[in-house]
């Protein structure tokens, strides 16, 4: 029946905005809607749209079971469960108090279990109740931080991974009341995606092996992949609870652009890292990259994971061009896995991971569809004007690719609101934008558009090609001009050959040609007759003017519409090959028009246009050929069928499109597939039974009129409301509460949607008449609009400000009364009001015989309370207040209490029912200071119960109760706010400040925010704790900062300890120069500097011999300058020279040298915690020689490697663990290297080699 070819664009910057199930149903959220597509077919087929949320949908999740369901959550704090087949609501809950960020449906038997998370860190498990039982809810809050993503373990569904905005990952076991199974910390920025390894175990099949241990019932453990905004993908082991691999996203070179190793601030703002773990290949991980490329990581390599672009070089043109937000996949066949990706470039792509290659691309739209037009030269070329500042050109007849779409964006800076193809030239497309620009695109070439030098002051609403007109032209023009009509009420003629020249106002041409002096109407639409012999101009006041060329003579004025004209369409000429009939001759002069009054008028102008100047004055038409009524909102588009003469299609703000038979004046077919208002319609030029429509649901539909269920547009709500009000007035007395509810029932416009697309923003008759309109205009449409894509308004031209003020045309809405019951009584029928007047007269003048009537009237204080005396008015206010409380209007009741003067009772009643408000507290001082203090105390208790601690603390500060305010903030873990209050309101010597900072620091350390915790400790004058806190991470920058802080604060020993740890970390990363730089500022670490120097020189010296079993000359190794002389000089000479000159040993006095030797001796005897290995018997030592000279001996006994094993260098004893830490494994099987000789050694071998220099 219908098909959505271009859906709305999936929402951006969300981790779970799209999902797919094993049946191939793909769901994604687009603003307030949820679109469903069957992606097993190529191209994908839409399965409908779910509309029910009133705010942006942030997350969706599909479940698999006996009945397919879909869970969704959004910014409105609501979680819904839908039936995907019927697209109906199954259940919902609103237990969240913040925006829902993630939903999840684990594959657990039974009724669907929906797990949702929000911005406050709360996780809610919700299972629909069985028959006869209610729903089951459970609420958990492992950490008070915004949650960004959720994912359940595929082989243990009750285990879920929770990602937080600060990079933390928690693994929870829902079966054990959400116990934290693992806490994974390593990312430095927002966590954006989580992917589990699809099979149990923590191995990739021979690559990384992790020793499993008991992990909350996970068996052999599990692996987890996470993507973060810090541009890394980390692999985690749940058994070890640590990161086992870090994958850094590479900077790729594409399309001839240089490789940029530094991401700009703009790129960092838009970084999004999505991950997907392939099911068929556990050693393959898919991730997104900076520019939209999909990377395929090979995890089977031995510790070195490499990445390639998915699909290789052949898929370079098929990659996304901007960041990718979602990666979801499913098993299409046993050996075939499909991956779906959504991106900021508004394309949805499907990848076959077996090939791998991109199978198809589904374009999506990021704004309203404002314009549709089909090329008369190429009937299969459809142009779509979209509110996302693009024009989509679709070749609907492409044989290979059914979605062959080009996106034109160059030179367009605002919404595209009008389009028009050139009638003769192929590929020439004119466009108009919301900012008043008019341009022409050459679709065939890739050149940027040509922009006209003449702009409209407001939005361009209509474009039409017609013959060029000049003030001195008397014959036919030789070129076709472009005419544009904008919101400024002017029609401009542009020369397409010279767009840089100024355009000509059509009103000036008419004035010059006809020698007219009067003021022209404000133009709202322009349409040229296909043969170029007449032009129709629609006006804001509802009139239509028809001018005949070449002399621009006004031949007809049509006065049938009473509101702004939105659409004008001339009937097209007969298709080639058809013979003319009397009916076709009549249709050749037909003009259809639509306006804001929801009625389409069709005018027959054939006889008038055939006069050819025989009439002196213009003909005024007040009766149309026919009127087509049925739409309940303004008409936004018209299009005649190019296949069937006399068949007209229309679209309206009532959300439907209608097909009419003009000759028989019947409504044929009605389409209601859109969710929102329609703004554009176009009849297919290749298929007689296809119509294209688009609207504010940001989607493009193609539907077949002959297959529609309805024949007429839906009924509007305006007549229903009027009938309801009429029934209300006829009831008269009694039932005041129900009358109030009915009288106030309206269909308000959704938030962010304007009342009228082409409405004048400043008055006249048209604007005033269209303001009330029907509620369908608003309610039918626009549940999809957002602040970024508001429909442009059509304002009036600028008027003189004095005239505006004098006429008062800009009316203000009358304020709403607080006396609702009284207002309802005044809205009764006239007979009842007259009876009230007679009763009031009898009451005021005490006529005889009317005492009974007067007494009964006095009891009815609502009718006469304003007109009798004080007592009756007091009774009236009491009843009004009770009515307001009953209907929940507490603020208005508080205002009446002030009028009444009984504020004390109102405060006490509001406190008893927890209905205290800011207004009530601000009015409490009218009664007295003590009452105000009591009111504040009650309000603080209410705010604490309502989880508003910040506001409660603010009110306590108004009472100067600083410590109590700080206590409330402290109890709610709002340490930042508590410290701010303490700093501002307490003395510096108050111990509360230090206690707050210490408690905050402990909380920050627990959450992993070590730098901020260190700042708290420094503020508390606890530098030791600050240095320890900032060193918790254990990496080089953290240790350097800790050492620097300890040094600045006078903790020399602690600074030296951190510097030594930092040097060890740098050596592990082959940064020898950095290690020496870390040790240099500390004199007490001179011995360690000598040891590190010896290690570095040995490392560099032995590497070329190939004895280390590994390559040590990596590109990232950072040597000290002195290692360059090792290969050309004697090693011992180099050691002596480095010790003396570079490390400053020669400058030391005798006492410091002796101290240094004792430190070296002590370090050689310190235990390093090496593992002992004992094999066989017999003591031996290994002597390493350089040529024939021994350098040092290694003593070894039959008890294995021990911490006391030593290397003797020039009489200095250095621990043998130096070599072991570098990986020097000595062999005992006789296959030793040539430079290793095995011999028996005594218990205390003598050093071999040179003696110490005299200076030592």
UniProtKB/TrEMBL annotation:
Domain Gem-associated protein 5 TPR, first and last residues per copy: 865-1072
Record-linked Pfam families: Beta-prop_RIG_2nd (PF23775), TPR_GEMI5 (PF23774), WD40 (PF00400)
Residue ranges with Low complexity bias: 769-782
GO biological process: spliceosomal snRNP assembly
Ranges: WD repeats: 50-85, 220-246, 628-670
Keywords tagged on the record: Repeat, WD repeat
Name the UniProt record assigns to this protein: Gem (nuclear organelle) associated protein 5
Organism classification: Eukaryota, Metazoa, Chordata, Craniata, Vertebrata
